[in-house]
Amino acid sequence: MKVAVFALVLICLGSAWSCVESQPLDISSPNDIQKFGRRYAESTIASDISKIVDSMVQKNFVNFLLNQREKKSEPAIDGPDSRIINDLLKKELVMWIQRKGEGLKNQ
Q1: How far is CA 73 from the centre of its chain?
Q2: Where does the signal peptide begin and end (predicted)?
Q3: At what angle do helices 30-73 and 2-19 cross, to 10 degrees?
Q4: Counting beta carbons within 10 angstroms of the beta carbon of residue 88, is it exposed (0 to 12), middle (13 to 18) or buried (19 or more)?
Q5: Domain segments of the chain: what residues?
Q6: Hey, what's the torsion of the CAs at 34, 39, 41, 45, to 10 degrees?
Q7: pLDDT: is 32 or 21 the higher one?
Q8: CA distance 39 to 70
Q9: 77 burial class (0-12, 13-18, 19+ CB within 10 angstroms)?
Q10: Average pLDDT over residues 93-98
């Protein structure tokens, strides 16, 4: 989609640049008024496309920032430290269960 919008912008800008003449505009002739109107319309289209592309870039940037924030908030579960802690907790739980089991046998 970005490529299509970019191509559309290039086409509009290319046609607008090809219509620009170096001669000053003579308002007296109707042909010059038509050329001026056409250049105004083309520049308006280019401006609108530029606004659309800018808003797309802004939305993509906001989404990027939100994704980065979500990645930072997720805890790293499978780190080497967490494995050691999990192993220690499992051993402690087994030892606690065994002590409780021995205590019940003695009663």
Answers
A1: 19
A2: 1-22
A3: 160
A4: exposed
A5: 1-74, 76-107
A6: 160
A7: 32
A8: 47
A9: exposed
A10: 85
> Phi and psi of 75, rounded to 5°?
-75, 150
Of the candidates 68, 71, 15, the one whose C-alpha atom is nearest the C-alpha of residue 46 is 15
User: pLDDT at residue 104 above 70?
Assistant: no
Question: Token pair of 53, please?
Answer: 């592309």
pLDDT band at residue 51 using 50, 70 and 90 as cut-offs: very high
Q: Can you tell me the distance from the alpha carbon of 93 to that of 91, in angstroms, rounded to the nearest whole number?
A: 5
Closest CA to 1 of 53, 46, 40: 53
Q: Name the residue with higher pLDDT: 107 or 99.
A: 99
pTM of model > 0.85:
no
Q: State the amino acid at position 36 in one-letter form.
A: F
